[in-house]
Protein 1
Amino acid sequence: MGKILLGCIADDFTGASDLANNLVRAGMRVVQTIGVPAGPLGADVDAVVVALKSRTMEPSEAVAQSLQALAWLQAQGAQQIYFKYCSTFDSTPQGNIGPVTEALMDALKTDFTIATPAFPDNQRTVFKGYLFAGDVPLNESGMQNHPLTPMTDANLVRVMQAQTTRKVGLIDYSVAARGEAAIRERIEQLRREGVGIAIVDAVSNDDLMRLGPALKDMPLVTAGSGVAIGLPQNFKLTPSSTASELPPSAGLQAVVSGSCSLATNRQVLAFIKAGRPALGIDPLRIAAGVDVAAEALAWAAPLIQKGPVLVYSTADSNAVKSVQGRLGVEEAGAMVERTVAAIARGLVERGVRQLVVAGGETSGACVQALNITQLQIGPQIDPGVPWCHAPSDAADAKGLHLTLKSGNFGTDDFFTKAFTRLA
Ligand code: ADP
């Protein structure tokens, strides 16, 4: 196997796919691994994204796992390391973006890196160090009320400084707009001032493409998925359809959904309206001890022979709140995830080889139930959502085509469009 060029560490699961998708579109062949692999990589690719779930764990544990991922990526030959976090800079006052960034800098013996969650394609822009989500500053976007990582300050220099011992500075728009030479000059100036981490302004993809060349020799880049669009050119790679090539698809088609996001609710309705077979599962019946997975699989068995089917627990927020009130939030979530994952596994055992999974937590549960440790990233279906291919214990030698749709991504016809795209 050849050496990889870019080694990436992502702090959550669907965020890893989002980054991988951007790299593929910019011309890299990419594999995403679920956690740090035990052995060497068995694929010839340009970049690997190691997906961790380190966003909200204890900072010391997030650091330990990130360093383990770094060591593995270095063993695969990675020339540059990319630490990927959310485009809304999701973090607690203790981290984990700051502590992980510093630990990676120490391990790589580098005194300077950048930090920018800018992702203009998804309306995340940074101006004068302030992060905007759509038309409003981060702390007015709803993120101020996030249950795990409330973001109450849009000024990323302040946010990052609160999580780090190194001095944090800014490469602002007036510099970023002038391109590589100006950015490099500013970096040298910041270095002389003792700055170790610089927030970078970017309001458009053009800004990110101008930033890319200035990052060429930087051992560590930290960012959302946006910066990825400007990096493959540094390795002389340009967009090409071969980067997203997957083995040909075959086998039966199915969708499982445990996502209760607004977009997913619309997608379930659109699938039903299109006259496709769909079965809703009831969390209260699972709680009552009914084998809901076996029922769903018996329902699906004759239907999957004729075309895609959907099994969903997707419900609107009132229904979800009512279930959570009776079963408890965590209990309800875990129970539904286990059931949806068992259904996904059963469908694959019955010949499904093209599987759409909706929901971030749900995706984690399904990937685990299918014993998937590695995903080759293929063509984009909608922004942030690519088809992937996984060799799986539960699949035959042909493996499984899989797409993991995070809650609010995808157009209303996603559940039918996905299969057309793969064909
Ligand atoms: P999303 O964030 O898009 O809603 P996730 O899969 O990340 O999707 O999270 C949804 C969570 O809600 C999961 O833990 C899932 O098991 C749970 N869940 C799914 N359907 C229901 C339901 N009908 N009632 C209560 N909880 C549900």
Protein 2
Amino acid sequence: MNPKVSRRTIIKTGLGGVLASMLNAPLLAKTALSQSVHHALLGFHAIPVADLLDDIVVPEGYSAQIFYRWGDPVSDGAEFKMDASNTAQEQLQQAGMHHDALQFYSLPTLSNHFERGLLVMNHEYIDPQVLHRDGGALDSLSTYTVEKTLKEQYAHGVSVIELKKESGSWEIVRPSHYARRITACTPMLVSGPVAGTHYIQTEADPKGQEILGTFNNCSNGKTPWGTYLTCEENFHDYFHVSTKKNISKKQKKSWKRYAIKHSYYGWHHHDERFDASQHPNEPNRFGWIVEFDPLDPESQPIKRTAMGRYAHENVAHKMAKDGRVAFYSGDDAKFEYVYKFITKQQWDGTQGAQHGGLLNEGVLHVARFNETGKGMWLPLIYGQNGLTKEKGFESQADVLVHARMAADVVGATPMDRPEWVTIHPETADVFISMTNNSKRGDKGRPKYDAANPRDDNHFGHIMKITENDAASTTFDWTLFSLAGDEDSGSTINGDSYANPDGLMIDSRGVLWVQTDISSSKLNTDKFAQFGNNQMLAVDPSSGETRRFLTGPIGCEVTGVVMTPDLKTMWVNIQHPGEEVPAVMQARGIEKSPSNPNAASNWPDHQKQGRPRSATVMITKDDGGIIGA
Ligand code: FEO
Ligand code: CA
Ligand code: CA
């Protein structure tokens, strides 16, 4: 904690009463009374931190089963080959890499039987050293082929898999009429104010109406009408800028603000649309929320431009009293913002993809967190609040393509990497994770403030927003928890964690918190005490926190969903086996294309194996409710 920010200061700057009770929660929790009250929500025995254990651990009385790994066929496609020799075409029919958020759909829709269903999930990015037998473009450009580029593009995107319950346990249905993969090459439509405008017109799509693919699909959301929303996060990592000659001043400014500079994957070597110097509008076609209907395997995904372009982490919705729908989404980068899109029209309460048009019209807002524990949602509307020609904006499409720059102008509050948003089913409180921000307080950068109370914020925090109504343009906010250890001023009541990322509140009101300590810091120095990345269960009223799951070496735990009866949970384990310096030093080896399992060999643990991101299915051995 910044030495200047004492516990007292936080109480003063946040909403005093609520925050004070949160800070005192550890004391209260020690009383027999509060223990008995809280048992109703959390009923399992917490597990210890996992120190370099290459496996999943869940509490006593629970089982975790490997369910859907990178390379597993979605339907009747080819089986996975452990030496990574599957072709690009085979990858197209298999699970992508780096599983992130997921959603469950009952079949038939809204059924109460829970005997059939769909799991829909994102595959955020790839590890070329694991995806290929001999690495990617950064390992060796001379062996980087068109086939490798395609395999990388096909390992991105979304999976839809069909499930059925057999003898009390969920299995994947193969073949399946519903199963599909959406990738970085799937043709999709574009709608809303940016559709057809010059910002997204390219040589291949002169009308600006059809975009090839979606990628870096981090987390997701579900609309109230039942479609799936996938969020395009770090799209800038895919574009290469070789020269800025002939690039307009405005475009250069935009590239700087959106960090379009360097490609980590090298697709531009074989797919020239990723060379931004040649195709300067191509990056404007990414950074959106994309909607599709998993129940219709033929449905074409649609990029919803009214919701703004930035590094969307996830999206969560809440109903306004008058029937309009509010969608909350964070922009996960240091000093970026939290946004809320409010539809213009009301939703009539019925299901179906025909309601998608609601996402084409509405107002995008960005949050300003005042020092007083109050806040405002500032509208990003062309012609208002300084979003004018004088400031370089020419239309509403311009404001949406450059939402970050518009948010700068209206005076939004720069945050410590806003990641997931989740909404409490009863109180409608909005919880948002801020994962970390090592740059806060650096020379020339914003210093700590009430809503981001620590300079050099290593461990992150979770905020809570309370609103009268989802359509409100004002709100109250508090710091729900400061993560980390006692030395850093943590306010966690129970098992500690660092770098909160995934958040999901289930229908009983349990807040599930997933962590993403970066591999370079995992198991090292001040992060060693938190062990491998993990998932915890939190009682939002008391703050009581219990560790529920720990992941294998080098992974991030991200994505959690439950069946409506809360008796089955799926959790995604992303990028096991990323290079963790503490592990590599202890073992005296390095991860490389010829040594892909140097850090982790989870989940298959085969001698010549390679680590695979995977969905894990969790059940309670007595068939009961997870977490209770
Ligand atoms: Fe993809 Fe910000 O996590
Ligand atoms: Ca994340
Ligand atoms: Ca993260």
Protein 3
Amino acid sequence: MTDQRPVCLSDLTLSRLTDYVKGMGQPAFRAKQIFKWVHQKLVTDFSAMTDQPKSLIQTLEQTCTLAAPTIRRRQQSKDGTVKYLLQLADGNCIETVLMRYHYGNTVCVSTQVGCAMGCRFCASTQAGRVRDLTPGEIASEIYTAQKDTGERVSHIVLMGIGEPLHNFDNVMDFLEIISCPEGLNIGMRNISLSTCGLVPKIDELAQRKLQLTLSVSLHAPDNTVRSSMMPVNDAYPLEKLIPACRRYQKTTGRRISFEYSMVRGVNDSPAMARKLADLIRGMGAHVNLIPINPVDGSPYSATDEENVRRFRQMLEDLGVNATVRRRLGADISAACGQLRREDAQQAAQQGNA
Ligand code: SAH
């Protein structure tokens, strides 16, 4: 039986698109042209591909689709940050954020609809994971932000909704598409991937030897505290995670950065700073500190900024590089995943009314 579902061409890497186009009896150069239309000129309509024969356009229209999310909500912060709620073809919504830094525009992409990891401080995971995003859907988040602002996107962080390493194959294809010279050609060194610490997948990623930056969401230097914040720590506790980070650095030659969201009275004491320094000293790793964004229904509150600064200074004194992450877009919506959740709650209320 043949699969009658339309193929989303946005999901195909250039080599897969080439196979697909050849399978249609077309020459390989058509694949390159179509790839450029989708991933460089960012069209979402086959009819806009003016160098393609009419008959091919007709066939593509009948058998294929292109990822074309719609902007359901758009919020712009005073600091220029733009936060989008994007609606996908099946009606699911995700969040995408564009941040303006002196070195260029960075887009923070979601990789799943919801998340299965269950971190207790995170809004994205409260209703669980609905589905994975496809490679083309992830890329289309960047394309939508670039087209909406009319400004080039130069950097990407995979730090939106979802656990990128829990959607490994699609994320790898996305990285190939987005760094392809026939596409937006965003260099791996301008891409950061953040994980809650899925150890086998960190090892698998290391084998790819990509030049991206791996961020590991550490948040606590001991298992009791980390497990209380992140259930994933029960499966991959620190004595597994930290050696995996060291292996990653050795295999790829790239330094890891650790995310550390500071929660009042939980992970922000001087004793925690010492434990953290003992855990990662000598790795040359970098720690990003950020006061936690309090989420409804979570017991956590943020460490005050003064204490964050003291914690940072202690780490530095103990030989660990640390910065306090600048918070952008604080006035438009706090923690990641909150816009999607708000929207779902409003829809539920309207449905009940
Ligand atoms: N699943 C991946 C990437 C998405 S979250 C991961 O866990 O790393 C991106 C970062 O935001 C992670 O470091 C995550 O722990 C952090 N984060 C999530 N909710 C937060 C909140 N309410 N306040 C501060 N940081 C948060």
Protein 4
Amino acid sequence: MKKIKKYLKKHLTKDRYHHTLGVASTAVAMAMRYNPDPSNSNFIKRAELAGLLHDCAKCMDNNKKLRICEKNNLSCSSFEKSHPYLLHGKVGAYIAQTKFKIEDNDILQAITWHTTGRPDMSLLEKIIFIADYIEPSRNPVPELNLIRQLAFVDIDKAMEKILSNTLKFLESKGNPIDKMTQTTYDSYVRTAVTVPYQSKALNC
Ligand code: DGI
Ligand code: FE
Ligand code: FE
């Protein structure tokens, strides 16, 4: 952790470092809430590590990101090539693996997919995706405080809301949308529709 924090301090701007610490602590809180094995703290530690590393390549020059992808055969879509800032997850996972010897595939995937998401995300991937959006120093966006509560109540609903708001935001700015962002949103809407509505059966 010490070595990672030293690297982040050196390679990120002050605000980005502050955001990173916010994501790590928010991921810890969510991991405490959703820990699949409350008898140990392994999941919480892994969430902290993924949160710390998720933006480790964010401040890297775009050309350097593209060079790292090319040199190491990391696949890039043509959309990613023309919008290289979207590559900071993939390149970040590469740095986590090569520089910090992280071999935990779930952590590497959580870093890789934290910007666009993807269908069928693991619990850890969802936590990092959501923590990135709701951490305390995030600039206020519509419904942020509602989503902050939802994140601790219904993690898939929080995913759907974040993806829907991100798509609305990108559309309002006229920014082109990566196929994966749309695919992820579609998959969460489908999940929400196919889950049976149960409150009538609860008799309350
Ligand atoms: O790195 P962060 O700023 O902490 O957060 P992030 O990795 O989620 O990146 C957020 C930015 O990525 C935000 O400005 C929206 C943008 N983004 C997410 N999905 C897409 C996208 N930008 C484009 N053009 N297309 C997308 O599909
Ligand atoms: Fe990011
Ligand atoms: Fe981030």
